[in-house]
Amino acid sequence: xxxxxxxxxxxxxxxxxxxxxxxxxxxxxxxxxxxxxxxxxxxxxxxxxxxxxxxxxxxxxx
Length: 62
What we know:
By secondary structure, the protein is an all-alpha fold. It has one domain (3-60). 85% of the residues lie in helices and 0% in strands. The protein contains 2 helices and no strands.
């Protein structure tokens, strides 16, 4: 597998994970204990930052 393909696969997987966490927070957030909600929102933000970095790296490889 080439580096570009690997980065695309990682980015796709992280995008799916991000979407799943966002959906969980949006649908179940009001029923969650506040500490769990806070941790999931923090995880969502961290994954978003990771995705931006992966996209920057993937954009530099040609």
